[in-house]
Design goal:
Strand order of the largest sheet: 2-3-1-4
Distance between the termini: 72 Å
Order of helices and strands: HHHHEHEEHE
CATH topology of the largest domain: VC0802-like
CATH class of the largest domain: Alpha Beta
Helix content: 40-55%
CATH architecture of the largest domain: 2-Layer Sandwich
Structural class: alpha+beta
Number of strands: 4
Radius of gyration: 36 Å
Shape: rod-shaped
Largest sheet: 4 strands, antiparallel
Number of domains: 2
Strand content: 15-25%
């Protein structure tokens, strides 16, 4: 039953927020009975449902792409270790380290793979490359080593990720 008193007067009526038994209607129920609540509910409920449906269908293709991309990124790529032995049993000279950096940058510029680790020690220097496909990456790395004159002193190994 609708209360004919204006909403402001009903809201300002003294007393506890919930009416005592036999004392009238609780305040929250008074608001629900007012002339504004019903039309507001009738308009807003379908509107919220419509927005939710549009959001679900608009994001469906993006969600699938994100899931596929995430799965492919979590798969471990194969790593290839390239080790080059030095001509003398000593730490690498600045020229040899420069040659190592050039090899690494050529591998990345030619999109063979991405260098994930680089180190040097007594008598050698090496770097590890993360590649998508070893059957195409290793021959390309061998070609780079041959062009630099390092193929006869190098070892290429596939290492576990």
């Amino acid at each position: 039953m609708l209360d004919p008193t204006p909403l402001s007067r009903r809201a300002l009526r003294p007393g506890p927020p919930f009416g005592l038994p036999g004392r009238g209607v609780p305040r929250w129920k008074r608001w629900c009975d007012c002339a504004i609540a019903a039309p507001l509910l009738v308009v807003c409920a379908p509107l919220i449902l419509l927005v939710a449906i549009i959001f679900l269908f608009s994001c469906k293709s993006e969600t699938a792409d994100v899931v596929k991309r995430t799965i492919s990124e979590t798969r471990q790529k194969t790593r290839v270790n390239v080790q080059i032995r030095l001509e003398k049993s000593d730490l690498p000279s600045p020229e040899e380290l420069d040659q190592q950096r050039k090899m690494e940058s050529q591998i990345e510029q030619q999109h063979i793979g991405s260098v994930v680790k680089s180190e040097s020690g007594v008598g050698y220097y090496d770097f590890t490359v993360e590649v998508d496909d070893t059957t195409t990456a290793i021959p390309r790395i061998r070609t780079l080593l041959a062009n630099a004159g390092l193929l006869n002193r190098s070892t290429i190994k596939i290492v576990s990720p």
